[in-house]
Amino acid sequence: MLDYETLRLLWWALLGVLLIGFAVMDGFDLGVAALLPVVGRSDMDRRVMINTVGPVWEGNQVWLILGGGAVFAAWPALYATAFSGFYIAMFLVLCALILRPVGFKFRSKLEGAVWRRAWDTALIIGGVVPAVVFGVAFGNVLQGVPFHFDADLRVTYTGGFFGLLNPFALLCGLVSLAMIIMHGAVYLAVKTDGQVAARARGVVPWAVLAMLVLFSLAGAWIALGIDGYAVTSAVVADGPSNPLMKTVERAPGTWLENYRRLPLSLIVPALGYVGALATWGLIRAERVGLAFITSSLAVAGVVGTAGVSAFPFLLPSSSDPASSLTVWDASSSHTTLQIMLVATLVFMPLILAYTAWVFRVLRGPVRAQDITNDGGAFY
After folding, report:
1. Which site in 61, 197, 242, 337 is 20 to 30 Å from 129, CA atoms measured?
2. What sections of the protein cross the membrane (predicted)?
3. Rounded distance between C-alpha atoms, residue 49 and residue 187, angstroms
């Protein structure tokens, strides 16, 4: 049996894997939807784009469900606090995500241009809004969220929805949007041909440039303009899950401390830069398959940077730093983490194998002539 400290570290890493899995797998779905008005110049172009993700979006969204389930079971205090504080934001994301399957199903039911434009707008909202809101959420995590625990460990959130829409968080939202547009454009370059693929390849350099500039601005803002958090009392890595048994202080530059202590961790943000630049170069060389891999690595680097920077914090508190949730004091019990780890080791390979099988079966581009010849089989 693994010790409590190791299990907590493993579940922190697994949470990161699930978030990265969601960003990579569902990210290109969201990116394709966001690109509908840019790449899709005609109704057939947009049908081709929609059908590149239509058969796989449900499976990709499993990563979001897995992430939420992991937070609920492994980090219950984080689940309770985050879903209380971000309730309206999460509801907004769910409403936007609901538009996606409805748009897929209803868009082609009627031929009218107004009807189809309305559902195209719904799909665009379903792509842009979740990408921005998830980025905004990460931006608020890095700044701290106003909540506190009382002596009975009951959490009280003292902020509001509009307080989440602060300048730094909105910048993070734009980073997220640029990232998923890059990823979605690369996916379209892989899964389409002709003018749709050419326009998607043309979007990639601009999306890469926007992502790198915005990512750099966010990094500079963290280094120079945002106070980080640090535990100032002794860290009891295998102690009880009680966030009030520590002291925490805010200080400038604290979010960079992990990179100073462990220089190898700089590989994570570097992956965001190198992956994005490699994607740009591979798209120019028309190596679209490899470009999708490097784009995925760039997404992993951007998402991973937030986790590595904040470690060991899961959700800092801006109003009462001592209430901040960390890897060491917000987890489930030792037994729960152990049982869940066994279940994860059994089911995660099955999910990965099934996902690989689905993409192998559905390999190859979606072509306009296929939709024309057998329109009833396509969205």
Report:
1. 197
2. 12-39, 60-78, 84-102, 122-142, 162-190, 202-224, 262-283, 290-315, 335-359
3. 10
